[in-house]
Amino acid sequence: MKKRFNVSLWVVSLLVALGPVARAHHGNSAYDESKPVTLKGIVTEFNWANPHAQIYFDVKQSNGHVEHWGCETLSPGRLIRAGWNKDSVKAGDQITITLVAAKNGAPVGFLQKLVFADGKQLLPTE
C-alpha cells in the first residue's frame, strides 16, 4: 500500500512539474498581439492537422508582387467546436483574414478572424 502511494505521489509531482512545460508551446510570444493585421488574399492550401490547422494564402501587393503567407489556427478539435470542418476552407477561396503577425517580420501569423468573399465568417473560438 505504501509503495502504491509513493508511486502515485511521484506521478502527481511529475505532472505538476511538467504542466507548464507542456503548455509552453502554445504561447503566442512570437506574434505581435498589439497590432492585428488584415489582409486580402487567395487560399493556396488548408492543412487540417494536429497540433494546429494551417491556412496558406497569397496576398497580391499594390506593386504586383505576390507574398506567400502562412497562418496558424487552433487544433482541429477546437475548430470543430467552433463550427469548422476539414472542408471549411479550400484552395482558391478569396478571403480577408485578420491575424497577429510575427514580430520578426516573417509573413506568418496567428488567426483572429477569417471572412470569405460572400461575407461568411469563421472565428477560431468556441
Quick recap:
The chain has 126 residues and is α+β, with helices and mostly antiparallel strands.
Structure overview:
With 126 residues, the protein is of the alpha+beta class. The protein has a single domain, classed as OB fold (Dihydrolipoamide Acetyltransferase, E2P), CATH 2.40.50.1010. The protein is built from 2 helices and 6 strands. Strands 1-2-3-5-4 form a 5-stranded mixed β-barrel. The protein is globular, with a radius of gyration of 19 Å. The chain starts with a helix and ends with a strand. Residues 11-24 have low confidence and may be disordered.
CATH class: Mainly Beta
Compressed to H and E, one letter per element, the order equals: HEEEHEEE
Number of helices: 2
Spatial separation of the terminal alpha carbons: 44 Å
Class by alpha and beta content: alpha+beta
How many whole angstroms does the radius of gyration measure? 19 Å
Unreliable runs: 11-24
- Overall 3D form: globular
